[in-house]
Design brief:
Blueprint lengths: L7 E6 L5 H14 L2 E6 L1 H11 L3 H5 L4 E3 L18 E6 L1 H9 L5 H11 L4 E5 L6 H13 L2 E2 L13 H14 L23
Parallel strand pairs: 1-2, 1-4, 2-3, 4-5, 5-6
Helix pairs in contact: 1-7, 4-5, 4-6
Length: about 200
């Protein structure tokens, strides 16, 4: 990216439970001045309504740019389009598995494949439990390819008082992996836990 360009982050919403994580990633991008490029899978559109009562238009309104999941000619489908990387939040097992094979059938998984081949960060907030051996082997394969598997687990050391605080802590820690520091994150040794040495 040139100095005049805003940093860009590709945000994928797949059909797994936990679509609120993706929505808060979009909110965080806006707070941080990062240009968000949103891709919503067909299954994610259903989950969005089921879990939040929102429509796809509500997610789109939070993004700077939205790409149709079928548009394999979109800017984010090319490695020549500079980005900070991509986060899939939430990431379904199907999406994870498709990325792991490199046989991509939508823009969401194609964009993830591009991020991997360009050696940019790919963060997958995988939502599934319990995990069988096939899931675990797929995760190992992705980790070997350079992806970061970052399930959205609650950080109880941050003493969250609400679900929103738990969500924001997970989102903020995922954004740390792109070098993005979001204000709602509670930091050990600063906001919680022992005081810094000399503090």
């Amino acid at each position: 990216m040139t100095k005049s360009e805003r940093p860009r982050l590709v945000v994928g919403l797949s059909g797994a439970s936990g679509v609120v994580y993706g929505l808060r990633v979009l909110d965080a991008c806006r707070d941080l001045g990062v240009e968000s490029h949103l891709i919503v899978s067909k299954a994610a559109a259903l989950t969005l309504t089921q879990e939040t009562g929102l429509a796809v238009a509500d997610a789109v309104s939070r993004a700077d740019v939205t790409h149709k999941v079928s548009d394999i000619g979109a800017s984010v489908a090319s490695g020549s389009f500079p980005t900070l990387g991509m986060i899939v939040a939430p990431c379904s097992v199907r999406t994870m598995s498709e990325i792991a094979t490199g046989v991509t059938s939508s823009l969401l998984t194609r964009a993830a494949d591009v991020v991997l081949k360009e050696r940019r960060p790919l963060v997958l907030m995988v939502r599934e439990t319990p995990l069988h051996l096939g899931h675990l082997r797929t995760m190992v394969r992705l980790a070997e390819m350079g992806a970061v598997i970052a399930p959205p687990l609650p950080a109880f050391y941050a003493r969250p008082a609400t679900i929103e605080e738990m969500v924001d802590q997970s989102v903020g820690r995922a954004l740390d992996l792109f070098g993005l520091s979001w204000a709602p994150v509670k930091r050990w040794g600063r906001d919680v836990g022992p005081a810094p040495v000399g503090g």
